[in-house]
Structure formats: structure tokens, C-alpha cells
Specification:
Length: 189
């Protein structure tokens, strides 16, 4: 019986450890960045990554005929293809005219989806941020401290969908995908 319990405990520990990974951050050589402040961390994102994402998205949207399903972010769900095209064109115009400016974003700051200021870029940053975090392309600094050398990614299953949760070594959440990609208040049909 002890052997069976030990085996079960070992399997449980292994499965718990395999549901997380440590992400090492790639060094950033460019000073051309934008900042994104979350509850517990300051994220520094290379503008070249944003530029690459928007160029790639342009091709994807054309291929998918500007369907909102090209995005995971729930803010795009109610949009018709023409509205997706209009929003993307506004973002492209904003990005091309203000790429050289200092851009700062904060999750505590309210921003309208259709605003024509820097807030229009926010849903796109929310869309690309989990992938950048997973590949270690974002400099992460815990608020009030020095930049971290690494952080962890955990996976949570919500209604059959897997979402990533990025955490600092002390357990504080950097970013939780389900907050942006899951409609929490939608009634089941």
C-alpha cells in the first residue's frame, strides 16, 4: 500500500511540475521600446516586435477576409469584417505616425476600443503579449525592483480551453491570458 501511495504521489508531483515552465528572458539590445504596466510588473516590449506583429497581422487579416476570428481577444468578437478592417487601418495609421514617440500603457488606465490616440494599440498589445512572454521577448521588471532574469508560465484549463498564466518567481501574476481571451460573464447557451 505504501508503494502504491508513493507511486501516486510521484505521478502527482511530476504532472504538477510538467504543467509549468521557466522562461529565460532574451537580452534586449534596442532602446526603441514601449512600456506596459500590469498590477505587479513593468513590461518592456521592443517596438520591432510590435512592427513585425502588425505586418504579419496584415497578411493574416487579408487571408481571413478580415474576420474577427483572426484574434483571440474578446474585444474583437462583435466586429463585422468591415469594422475589423477599419480598426486595423486606424491602428496602422497610428503606429506609422507615432512609432518614434515614447509609448506607455497601463492596465489601470481606461482606454476606449475605438479611440484614435495611443489607446487604440492596446488590444493588439494584449493579443501579442502572451506569445512574446512565452518566447522571452519581453523585459519583465517587478514593480519597485530590478528586472527579473526569468519567470514561469503555468497553464490553466477553463471550460476545455487552455490559457497561459505568467508568474514571477515569488508567485505574483505578470499576465493571465484568460482575462483577455475569455468572456467571463457570457451565459451558457
Amino acid at each position: 500500500m505504501k508503494k502504491l501511495m508513493t507511486l501516486c504521489l510521484g505521478i502527482l508531483c511530476y504532472s504538477g511540475l510538467s504543467a509549468q515552465r521557466v522562461i529565460k528572458i532574451e537580452p534586449q539590445e534596442s532602446a526603441d521600446t514601449l512600456t506596459y504596466v500590469t498590477r505587479n510588473a513593468v513590461l518592456t516590449i521592443l517596438k520591432e516586435d510590435v512592427d513585425f506583429y502588425l505586418k504579419t497581422l496584415d497578411s493574416v487579416l487579408k487571408e481571413r477576409k478580415f474576420q474577427h476570428t483572426a484574434y483571440r481577444n474578446i474585444q474583437f468578437n462583435p466586429l463585422k469584417p468591415e469594422e475589423v478592417r477599419t480598426h486595423y487601418n486606424l491602428v496602422s495609421k497610428f503606429w506609422n505616425t507615432s512609432r518614434g514617440n515614447q509609448l506607455n500603457y497601463n492596465v489601470d488606465r481606461f482606454s476606449l476600443f475605438w479611440s484614435e490616440d495611443d489607446g487604440i494599440l492596446l488590444p493588439y498589445l494584449d493579443e501579442m503579449l502572451p506569445d512574446l512572454l512565452e518566447y522571452g521577448r519581453v523585459k519583465v521588471t517587478e514593480k519597485g525592483k530590478l528586472p527579473v532574469a526569468n519567470y514561469q508560465v503555468f497553464y490553466e484549463d477553463i471550460e476545455g480551453q487552455t490559457f497561459r498564466v505568467f508568474k514571477l518567481a515569488n508567485g505574483k501574476i505578470i499576465w493571465r491570458e484568460s482575462e483577455y481571451f475569455l468572456e467571463h460573464f457570457a451565459g451558457k447557451r
